[in-house]
Specification:
Largest sheet: 22 strands, antiparallel, barrel
Membrane topology: Multi-pass membrane protein
Radius of gyration: 29 Å
Shape: globular
Family: Belongs to the TonB-dependent receptor family.
Structural class: mainly beta
CATH class of the largest domain: Mainly Beta
Number of helices: 11
Number of strands: 41
Protein name: TonB-dependent receptor
CATH topology of the largest domain: Maltoporin, Chain A
Subcellular location: Cell outer membrane
CATH superfamily of the largest domain: TonB-dependent receptor, beta-barrel domain
GO cellular component, one term: cell outer membrane
CATH architecture of the largest domain: Beta Barrel
Number of domains: 2
């Protein structure tokens, strides 16, 4: 039996795509509204398996083909036709039709974070596993940028909420985004589209498919997307936040027999963009120093312009291939998915976000990933059915990064000292450092990081249906995860290599013993402390007193101290995790129109590694002394081994595993003209891996426990033929149950910043048929709302100085619209607008880089609009 796409024409034509139920009503309405003679392009899309009714929607959220109403999982489905009608070009815009999903793109094109039900991790560090897993045609994309290509032939996007370890071999503690593309067809057909919009946006995409032989079919698709930047770098007269990306993919589908199918695909994608604008919300006390060195900045946050000393560059190459084999033997189906992928990410960026040449960063990352999934699924007529699978994951990450001090970096930092210009020359003379060495133009740090991650898992589910309509499900996943990493960094800043407490102590001992300071080493310090404990105590006390040790005022400039390389004799550079997770669920068909279910599930995500210059040993391996003093530090393995470097801190090397738990009950109803879905849930992640910017670096640690309680409701209403309304809302009560050591202090009991209580997505679609001509006009309006919420829980520098007050807030009200005239001959012409009312909001904020008291942030995109021409054949 030939395998063909399982999403129905009715869904494709309805333009409905939110929520996990209610689509069959819309499908029925659209089926009734069809002309007696289908358009040629519809016929090409209309060859579906005879075993499925044309008015149901088939998904693979449970790794089996089931209808949405039969799937007792909280899942949202967005069809490819909905993506076309709503003019959703990439995954960033998917949140406008899926209220439980939030997507953000921040520092650069590759820094994209997916958040489901308030849980998600930043993708600014490749050592951190995502809490939300992204799969494309069953292949795990280990970094979110790997799933951002503008695919030209999407069949649907499924968003599964909550831990999914029993269905996906690679654990995802918060949820899964499963992107499903159309397989090659045995009927010739295709699609071609050209769109043009404001900001000189130009998009071309298309696909073609057809038979090579009776058993072999092919498809080729690709897209090109370019646009001028939304914003302007005023002093450079250059755009920023542009689009310049393309991708191409080829597929082969071989079906030599009715029970064997082999699908091979290979793809290549390229991004070469200038991203992203960060503007100043609050100009702190460092702003006069920026102006003093000839720099500029703007506090007109939504003025759509900025000042930088260079145009940021972000280049991404993402490519790979996969082979999926499906073999049916009686009621048993065996599936194998083998994939290999490579990802290259490069960016060069001004990270002080002013036109002054203070500091810049270059990062070059390469990721090589091999995955293998094998699963067996049954389709027995009896009460028992099962799915059993195994998953293997092997990945290697190489990263080289550099910070560079700009031409005016020394002058800028010197203006921030109490004594102003000339200060560093005096400090260099007093500490015996080379003249003009502090913040000298040139390399500030150079870094080399590598991580190898190997994991395997066994997973499966068993369904028991003792009577028709009542199904008990039990599932499990056992995962074994191993990470081996090596981190090496050289810090070139002379001042950062001096501990100011220890320097004072050495100077005090040198004066007391009439010995040159360069001859005072650990042995001499120990001897003096033993021989003259009172004198040593007095020197140490003075070293910690800002009134006596004026060097302490320079500590704010030591943000790039020496780095303790790993592995070393104390830290082996390894994490080893294993965990058994499980699911229990009961589902019952109360009637043909009503289904209910209740479930309990656990999830797991392995340890993450801070692959950055901010990586520090665990507390206990090293215990810093006051002021990060090594001389005053208590005994610890690193100190005892002689490994301690000046100004060594602790606590941001590794974050331990996440353990998820979710209780959920759901109700699904399907009646004539209306369908709805309701899910109530209580979801908790213990040890949530928090990764937050602190002003000069990133802190990685575990929150004790983060939880969210709430509900999701969606409905589809068809009041008359051709008119479809959808409504979906999510309520989230997200709380840090325990987070004692966040960058802004104890957050235990506080709401989680950036997670709005209410998310709403609504749409109206009207299809007007022009008699028996087969022509029709499709008009669609979408509305997205996020209730007002604190953007985050405060900033480590700005808000901490204010007692964690004056936290910035955000609210979203977004209206999108489109209108398309679809002709019977396959041609379509239309127009679209996104953010119709030009509503603007703050995406996020952060402490100004090395600018205490300054707040920077990312603004949302302005209104965009354009027209398109499409031809389906």
């Amino acid at each position: 039996m030939r395998r063909t796409p399982t999403i129905t024409k009715a869904l494709l034509l309805s333009g409905v795509g939110i929520g996990s139920l209610g689509f069959t009503v819309a499908a029925q309405a659209e089926e009734q509204a069809q002309p007696e003679t289908a358009a040629p392009q519809e016929e090409a899309q209309d060859e579906f398996d005879d075993d499925f009714d044309d008015n149901v929607i088939i998904v693979t959220a449970s790794k089996r083909e089931t209808t949405l109403q039969e799937t007792p999982i909280s899942v949202s489905v967005t069809s490819g036709e909905t993506l076309d009608n709503a003019v959703i070009r990439d995954v960033l815009d998917l949140q406008t039709v899926t209220p439980s999903l939030r997507v953000s793109q921040l520092q650069n094109s590759s820094n994209t974070t997916f958040i489901i039900r308030g849980f998600g991790n930043g993708d600014n560090n490749f050592g951190i596993e995502p809490s939300v897993g992204v799969f494309v045609d069953g292949v795990f994309r280990s970094r979110s940028i790997g799933g951002l290509g503008d695919l030209a032939n999407l069949e649907r996007v499924e968003v599964l909420r909550g831990p999914q370890s029993t269905l996906f071999g690679k654990n995802a503690s918060a949820g899964v985004i499963s992107i499903v593309t159309r397989a090659p067809q045995f009927d010739f057909g295709g699609n071609f589209e050209v769109a043009y919009g404001n900001f000189n946006q130009f998009i071309v995409k298309g696909d073609i498919t057809g038979p090579i032989t009776d058993t072999l079919a092919f498809s080729v698709d690709g897209s090109y997307n370019r646009r001028d930047g939304f914003f302007e770098i005023e002093n450079l007269n250059e755009d920023i936040n542009d689009r310049n990306r393309w991708n191409v993919r080829g597929q082969l589908l071989w079906e030599p027999t009715d029970n064997l199918s082999i699908r091979a695909q290979a793809d290549y994608g390229r991004i070469d963009e200038s991203c992203c604008l960060a503007n100043t919300l609050v100009a702190g006390p460092t702003a006069p120093a920026v102006f003093g060195v000839g720099g500029q900045l703007t506090t007109d946050f939504f003025g759509d312009s900025t000042f930088l000393n260079q145009v940021p560059r972000n280049e991404v190459d993402n490519y790979g291939g996969s082979i999926q084999v499906d073999y049916e033997t009686g009621p048993i189906t065996i599936t194998s998915i083998t994939a290999y992928r490579e990802l290259s990410n490069f960016f060069d960026q001004d990270v002080d976000f002013t036109s002054a040449d203070i500091v810049s960063e270059i990062r070059n990352q390469d990721v090589q990933t091999f995955t293998q999934e094998l699963r067996i699924a049954s389709d027995f007529d009896g009460p028992l059915n099962f799915l059993l699978g195994g998953f293997f994951f092997d990945e290697t990450i190489d990263q080289n990064s550099d910070l560079t001090t700009g031409a005016v970096g020394r002058e800028f930092f010197e203006l921030l000292t109490p004594t102003g210009p000339g200060t560093f020359l005096g400090v260099e003379a007093g500490l015996g450092l080379p003249a003009n060495s502090i913040f000298s133009p040139g390399p500030l740090t150079t870094e080399q990081y590598r991580m190898e991650n190997t994991s395997w898992s066994i997973f499966g589910t068993v369904d028991f249906e003792p009577v028709d309509g009542l199904v008990f499900t039990a599932g499990f996943n056992y995962t074994d995860d191993a990470k081996d990493f090596a981190l090496s960094q050289t810090s070139f800043d002379e001042l950062g290599a001096v501990n100011l407490v220890d320097a004072f102590i050495v100077g005090g001992i040198a004066g007391a013993t009439m010995t040159p300071p360069n001859q005072i080493g650990p042995a001499e310090i120990a001897a003096f402390q033993t021989a003259q404990p009172d004198a040593f105590a007095a020197i140490a006390a003075a070293a910690l007193d800002p009134g006596q040790n004026q060097l302490l005022g320079l500590s704010a400039f030591q943000f790039q101290p020496p780095f303790l390389n790993i592995p070393n004799s104390v830290e082996d550079g390894r994490t080893r995790d294993d965990q058994l997770t499980y699911t229990f669920r009961v589902a019952y068909d109360v009637a043909d129109e009503i289904n209910v279910y209740a479930s309990y599930a656990t999830g797991f995500k392995a340890s993450s590694v801070n692959l950055s210059r901010d990586s520090r040993p665990a507390f206990g391996d090293f215990i810093p002394g006051p002021g990060n003093s090594t001389i005053l530090a208590p005994a610890s393995p690193i100190l005892n081994a002689g490994l301690a470097v000046p100004n060594l801190g602790t606590g941001s090397r590794v974050a331990g595993p996440e353990d998820a738990e979710v209780w959920e009950v759901g109700l699904k109803g399907q009646f004539e003209g209306i369908g709805f879905n309701l899910a109530l849930f209580d979801q908790t992640i213990e040890g949530f891996q928090s990764f937050l910017f602190t002003g000069t670096g990133f802190q990685l640690n575990n929150a004790g426990q983060q939880s969210v309680r709430g509900f999701e409701f969606d409905a589809t209403i068809v009041p008359t033929d051709g008119l479809v309304f959808t409504f979906a809302t999510t309520y989230l009560d997200a709380v840090y149950d325990e987070f004692l050591e966040s960058p802004v202090g104890d957050l235990s009991g506080q709401p989680v910043g950036g997670v709005p209580e209410w998310n709403i997505a609504a749409s109206g679609t009207y299809t007007h048929e022009f008699g028996a001509s087969g022509n029709r006009l499709v008009t669609r309006v979408d509305y997205q709302h996020e209730s007002a919420v604190n953007v985050n829980n405060g900033l480590p520098t700005f808000n901490a100085a204010l007692g964690n007050t004056q936290i910035f807030r955000r609210a979203v009200n977004l209206v999108n619209g489109s209108i398309t005239f679809q002709m019977d001959n396959g041609f379509e012409i239309g127009g679209f607008v996104r953010n119709l009312f030009d509503d603007r909001w703050i995406l996020t904020v952060f402490d100004g880089v090395a600018q205490s008291g300054t707040v920077s942030g990312y603004p949302s995109a302005p209104r965009t609009f354009g027209g398109l021409v499409r031809y389906r054949f």
